[in-house]
Design a protein that fits this description.
CATH topology: Arc Repressor Mutant, subunit A
Number of strands: 3
CATH class: Mainly Alpha
Helix content: 25-40%
Strand order of the largest sheet: 1-2-3
Number of helices: 3
Largest sheet: 3 strands, antiparallel
Length: 80
């Protein structure tokens, strides 16, 4: 399955337990995020994973930003 607006982020229950992956590979979005957060440059990631493309990394970052958008919804107390 591909999410609208994120054509490089895929989900398959048979691959990595359905976690968000890059283009049907076994490279998860969370792995890429952890590498970036740990200080790896785009060039270093692409060298370590030569089957990835720069746009894969950028789309993972956009996907993470989309997930991190916050919304606060006020819920009515139970029983009202």
């Amino acid at each position: 399955m591909v999410m609208k607006g994120f054509d490089r982020i895929t989900f398959d229950l048979n691959v990595m337990g359905g976690r968000a992956c890059v283009r049907d590979t076994r490279v998860t979005a969370s792995l890429i995020l952890n590498l970036v957060a740990g200080g790896m440059s785009e060039a270093e990631i692409l060298e370590a994973y030569p089957y990835l493309e720069a746009e894969d990394i950028r789309q993972v970052l956009r996907y993470a930003a989309w997930l991190a958008e916050e919304s606060v919804l006020e819920l009515a107390p139970v029983g009202t």
